[in-house]
Design a protein that fits this description.
Blueprint (H helix, E strand, L loop, with lengths): L6 E5 L6 H12 L2 E4 H9 L4 H13 L5 H12 L8 E4 L5 H13 L6 E6 L2 H9 L1 E4 L5 E3 L17 E2 L6 H24 L3 E5 L4 H12 L2
Parallel strand pairs: 1-3, 1-4, 2-3, 4-8
Antiparallel strand pairs: 5-6, 5-7
The structure holds adenosine monophosphate.
The site of adenosine monophosphate has 16 residues, from helix 2 and helix 3.
Length: about 220
């Protein structure tokens, strides 16, 4: 497997650390990191019918953005990445239809997803981790309250203001977890059948999770 044009996917419940791992993998293998959550949060700030619809879905209701919108936004974004550049998908696909869409998209370009990492953590651990998550308004880095930063701190990476995501409250987390469980099993199955799925224990230190993932890529 060539590392320079590899396509990877990280799957896992919210708070599993998939964003952190994707960021570390992007750095190590020089991959373009695609986080649909961040793309939609930016769109949600736009004062347009689409922006308001996305804001309602992701911030007020904690529901998934419908596939037709995801396809449109995703394609527009990924088309801009130079052909042959390595990619890591984080937070997408979220549905079986999206997985099929992404497969077809890459197939048309003569490419394919190489490996899919499923980072597993329990429901209790998810709630525990998300309740202390803070995000930088500028560089979007996720930080842990009481571990990486204190309540009044600025982002240690860029000095930006930190905030708690509107969907990181216990009620919102529960809805997102329920939605996630409904869609994750068919996705896991889909990639298992393609022989691309690798299950990783997400309840280990960040460096150990990373080591486990890198070990599979460098095999
Ligand atoms: P995340 O930052 O990955 O937790 O995403 C935040 C929110 O954006 C999710 O709860 C969804 O509402 C929405 N979202 C992100 N990625 C997708 C996707 N691939 N399909 C549908 N909705 C998504």
């Amino acid at each position: 497997m060539s590392k320079s044009n590899i396509i990877l996917v990280v799957l896992g419940p919210q708070g599993s650390g998939k964003g952190t791992q994707a960021e570390m993998l992007a750095k190590k293998f020089n991959l373009t990191h695609i986080q649909t959550g961040n793309i939609f949060r930016e769109k949600a700030e736009e004062d347009t019918p689409l922006g308001r619809k996305i804001d309602r879905l992701i911030n007020k209701e904690g529901r998934l953005v419908p596939d037709e919108i995801v396809f449109q936004v995703w394609k527009e974004y990924v088309e801009k990445i130079p052909q042959g550049k390595g990619i890591i998908l984080d937070g997408n696909p979220r549905t079986l239809e999206q997985a099929k869409f992404i497969d077809n998209f890459f197939k048309e370009k003569g490419r394919e997803i190489n490996k899919v990492f499923y980072i597993g953590i329990s429901g209790e651990e998810t709630i525990k981790r998300l309740s202390v998550r803070r995000v930088c308004k500028d560089c979007k880095k996720s930080l842990r309250l009481g571990i990486d930063v204190e309540e009044s701190d600025k982002c240690p990476k860029c000095g930006g203001e930190l905030f708690q995501r509107e969907d990181d409250t216990p009620e919102r987390i529960k809805v997102r977890l329920d939605t996630y469980k409904e869609v994750i099993l068919p996705l896991v199955d889909y990639y298992k059948k393609q022989d691309k799925l690798v299950e990783i224990n997400g309840e280990q230190p960040i460096e150990k999770v990373f080591e486990d993932i890198v070990g599979c890529i460098e095999d």
